[in-house]
């Protein structure tokens, strides 16, 4: 498929508002004669129309819109249903764009391991292009040298284990705020969805920018709103990406204009952040007067030189590994730029794009794991009891679980894996695009085809998980080598291969730590009168699937 076809493939197709689809489909249906496509014999590559190729099975399509009308509010669920009929390797048409839907662990392995390089491109929507500096970030950068350089920068400099450990004191401080909020509310119910979102935003903001922005400062409120708009826009259905002749609708419905405004305002904000970090880097002794005080006086600083860091090693860094490295991501990136450590010239634009990736990739996804884990624990009191027993045994009367304790919490790890299996935060991962023609399992896949891996369906496939795949049962992971790091294709919430998520350690360091400590400190129940079976499990629609209704829970402090 040609490059310009790729331009018309959106970032994700998981956000197709059913209303918009209905509006499109009804007039189209009345105007156009339904044309059924024959499956298995149609050429999908524009350059090979004369040649019959073996293409994966497809449901019938409608003219112009292809299969778009079939996606519904929860595409991961409708695609699962369709794949039961058409198989785990199924070709759909999103308007003009062919999209391969993969719904089994075996075929996910074929795509993400056997043919990893051939499926390493991304689908960059026109909105994503506008918001992420024309794909100059990591997650949407086209496969090639630039992406390789940016990804290794991200992996080696920002998201390595040592750097993740260096944010230990941030995690501890944000947890302390969460615990206080829960204690203050007790015994009235706490909105745990909001509490988890606040915590993960705080951790990411401080790790990336060196501070967080309070509710009472205008710039903080604006940044929060902009981020929400940014994430919403990345997942928004952009009709022009699928049906180029209808691209004018994006002007009419204001999508283009909104993307333009959000991109500009986010850029202004990041420009200011980078400038302030630059002045700190250039004039270290004046940092107090420059970086933080410009914004406000209540900012939470990562650096706490001169104060006890509480980790007992006396180095003032609070990270427990004694290296004194308290740099945030912007600091690190500016140093890499100044000292030319990346091996390629790192532009300011690339720095801003990486920072946006960290927010986009690292906030909603991380909080969603906590939200669904807590939901499942409240629905399964026996599992919660087992987890509390394990955590309290390891704590041996202490009031906190430390990072070092986490290695011994096997049941906790099983609970988190089971949560990721049933509730992968990105059920359809981040779509890939075939870089060249490739044959998979005897089917021909044309270059430019979008590839969507249904991690949600794979996590519930009885062929991998036995007769009751929908049951929340962490015990299935005890003594099992199956992990989520991209080697076991039945469990791929973080994807796998070259484009697999580089933020696993960062995310899991927060999720495991917070969940363990909440289980240690409190006993939990649903608000009075609510039974486990009454808990609303409706999912939100969107790229990242969280609860539609906030999770309310009642906490009682546990006395050890
Ligand atoms: C529970 C939390 C998270 C989940 C479930 C998650 C999931 C994913 C998935 C499914 C992908 C696409 C993988 C593929 O194509 O094979 C991805 C890519 C990515 N994630 Fe995450 N992620 C999480 C946390 C994070 C965090 C904390 C960060 C950064 C701080 C991050 C940064 C990225 C980046 C930069 C990419 C793009 C990689 C590339 O295209 O080369 N993620 N993530």
UniProtKB/TrEMBL annotation:
Keywords: Heme, Iron, Membrane, Metal-binding, Monooxygenase, Oxidoreductase, Transmembrane, Transmembrane helix. Residues 278-291 have a biased composition (Basic and acidic residues). Gene3D superfamilies: Cytochrome P450. Residues 293-303 have a biased composition (Low complexity). It comes from the Eukaryota. PROSITE patterns: CYTOCHROME_P450 (PS00086). Its cofactor is heme. It holds the Pfam family p450. Heme binds at residue 501. Residues 278-322 are annotated as: Disordered. One of its GO terms (molecular function) is oxidoreductase activity, acting on paired donors, with incorporation or reduction of molecular oxygen. The chain crosses the membrane at residues 12-36. InterPro entries: Cyt_P450, Cyt_P450_CS, Cyt_P450_E_grp-I, Cyt_P450_sf. Residues 306-322 have a biased composition (Acidic residues). Belongs to the cytochrome P450 family. PANTHER family: CYTOCHROME P450 71A2-LIKE (PTHR47955:SF15), CYTOCHROME P450 FAMILY 71 PROTEIN (PTHR47955). This is Cytochrome P450 71A26-like. It comes from Punica granatum. The gene is LOC116214309.
């Amino acid at each position: 498929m040609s490059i310009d076809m790729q331009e018309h493939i959106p970032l994700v197709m998981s956000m197709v508002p059913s209303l918009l689809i209905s509006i499109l489909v009804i007039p189209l249906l009345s105007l156009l004669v339904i044309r059924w496509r024959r499956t298995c014999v149609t050429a999908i590559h524009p350059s090979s129309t004369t040649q019959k190729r073996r293409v994966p099975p497809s449901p019938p399509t409608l003219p112009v819109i292809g299969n778009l009308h079939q996606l519904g509010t929860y595409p991961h669920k409708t695609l699962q249903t369709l794949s039961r009929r058409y198989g785990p390797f199924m070709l759909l048409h999103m308007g003009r764009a062919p999209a391969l839907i993969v719904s089994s662990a075996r075929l996910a392995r074929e795509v993400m391991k056997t043919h990893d390089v051939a499926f390493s491109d991304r689908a960059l929507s026109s909105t994503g292009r506008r918001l992420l500096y024309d794909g100059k970030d990591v997650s949407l950068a086209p496969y090639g040298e630039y992406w390789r350089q940016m990804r290794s920068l991200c992996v080696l400099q920002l998201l390595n284990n040592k750097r993740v450990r260096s944010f230990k004191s941030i995690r501890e401080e944000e947890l302390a705020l969460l615990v206080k909020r829960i204690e203050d509310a007790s015994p009235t119910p706490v909105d745990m969805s909001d509490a988890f979102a606040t915590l993960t935003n705080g951790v990411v903001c401080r790790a990336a920018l060196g501070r967080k922005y309070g509710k009472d400062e205008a710039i903080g409120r604006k940044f929060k709103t902009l981020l929400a708009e940014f994430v919403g826009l990345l997942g928004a259905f952009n009709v022009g990406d699928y049906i180029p002749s209808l691209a004018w609708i994006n002007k009419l419905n204001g999508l283009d204009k909104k993307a333009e405004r959000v991109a500009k305002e986010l850029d202004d904000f990041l420009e200011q952040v980078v400038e302030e970090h630059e002045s700190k880097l250039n004039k270290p002794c004046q940092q107090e007067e420059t970086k933080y005080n410009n914004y406000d006086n209540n900012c939470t600083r990562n650096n706490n030189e001169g104060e006890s860091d509480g980790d007992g090693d006396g180095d003032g860094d609070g990270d427990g590994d004694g290296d004194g490295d308290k740099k945030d991501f912007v600091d690190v990136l500016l140093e890499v730029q100044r000292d030319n450590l990346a091996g390629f010239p790192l532009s300011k634009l690339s720095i801003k794009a990486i920072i946006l990736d960290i927010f986009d990739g690292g906030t909603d996804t991380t909080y969603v794991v906590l939200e669904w884990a807590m939901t499942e624990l409240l629905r399964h009191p026996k599992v919660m009891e087992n987890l509390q027993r394990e955590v309290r045994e390891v704590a041996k009367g202490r009031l906190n679980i430390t990072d070092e304790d986490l290695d011994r919490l096997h049941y906790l790890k099983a609970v988190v894996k089971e949560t990721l299996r049933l509730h992968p935060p990105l059920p359809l991962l981040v779509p890939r695009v075939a870089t060249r023609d490739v044959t998979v399992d005897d089917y021909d896949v044309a270059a430019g085809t979008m590839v969507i891996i249904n991690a949600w369906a794979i996590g519930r496939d009885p062929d991998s998980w036995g007769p009751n795949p929908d049951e929340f049962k962490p015990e299935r992971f005890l003594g099992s080598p199956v992990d989520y790091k991209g080697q076991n294709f039945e469990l791929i919430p973080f994807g796998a291969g070259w484009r697999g998520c580089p933020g696993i350690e960062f995310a899991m360091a927060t999720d495991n730590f917070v969940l363990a400590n909440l289980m240690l400190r409190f006993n939990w129940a649903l608000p009075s009168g609510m039974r486990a079976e009454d808990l609303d499990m409706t999912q939100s629609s969107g790229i990242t699937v969280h609860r539609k209704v906030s999770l309310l829970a009642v906490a009682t402090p546990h006395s050890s």
